[in-house]
Amino acid sequence: MPRGAAALSWAGALLRGARTSRRSLASSVDLTRARAHDHAALREELLVFDQLLTRAEAQTLADDVAAVMDELPMREEHFDGLIARHREFHTGVDAPMWTPRSRAAVARVRTTVAELHFPALQPQLHVLELPNGAAILPHFDSVKFSGSITVGINLNAPAVLRFTDGGSVAELHIDPGSVYIMSGLARYVYKHEVLPIRGLRRFALIQRDPGPCSHLPVWLQYLHGIFPLPPTSDELLAEYRKKRHDDFMRTKESE
Ligand SMILES: O=C(O)CCC(=O)C(=O)O
Ligand SMILES: [Fe+2]
């Protein structure tokens, strides 16, 4: 699969970098506590890119985000109960808030996602601030309102994203300016969380492909979240997990 080849070379280069320069600020994917039979899939489905944005671009993106964020009140709880203190807003890739440098940086991320043959991203961006000490509890992204990939640009402060499936744990250590893409196992089988942020506030700029209900108007999406119609997210997740398991068993049998 062309996507796999490209993705592996990125991930491989990154892992080599992490091994050879432990003191550098390079982001890394830590699979040492992940179950062995998930390693190959996670190397393709939990990607991190350290060289996609320049430091200047990461700083400009953070400055553009801060200018909007600083006008918003800090919220104590998110409606889904997963995030305590945070601020957030939604905007478009071409919104006037972005300076040309930021717009070019986001466009490059989107081009890379397209070149890796992932599904097309929606034009909306979800921008999130986690202040010092804030975290996001373990969850699956909605299988109704988001599609099969989540793309995050990490800004302003380092962060640790932890992925867990039972006792199997993978961790993404990301620096400001790093971009990650979660798909497959990392999106549907492993729950993810953001460990408490330490020090500076951290921004995340999240992009997703559409889910089956993304076309609904926003007010209906909220209602839909409150009164779930079948199939529920749990049923869709269970279906996906079963499919992944069956695929895995088939691969084993043919080995
Ligand atoms: O902060 C992040 O990078 C991830 C946020 C997240 O999990 C979400 O928006 O669903
Ligand atoms: Fe999430």
TrEMBL record:
GO cellular component: mitochondrial matrix
GO terms for biological process, alphabetical: DNA damage response; fatty acid metabolic process
Family membership noted in the UniProt record: Belongs to the iron/ascorbate-dependent oxidoreductase family.
The species this protein was found in: Prymnesium parvum
InterPro entries referenced in this protein's UniProt entry, alphabetically: AlkB-like_sf (IPR037151), ALKBH7-like (IPR032870), Oxoglu/Fe-dep_dioxygenase_dom (IPR005123)
Listed name of the protein: Fe2OG dioxygenase domain-containing protein
A GO MF term: metal ion binding
Keywords: Iron, Metal-binding, Oxidoreductase
All residue ranges annotated as the Fe2OG dioxygenase domain in the record: 119-222
Superkingdom of origin: Eukaryota
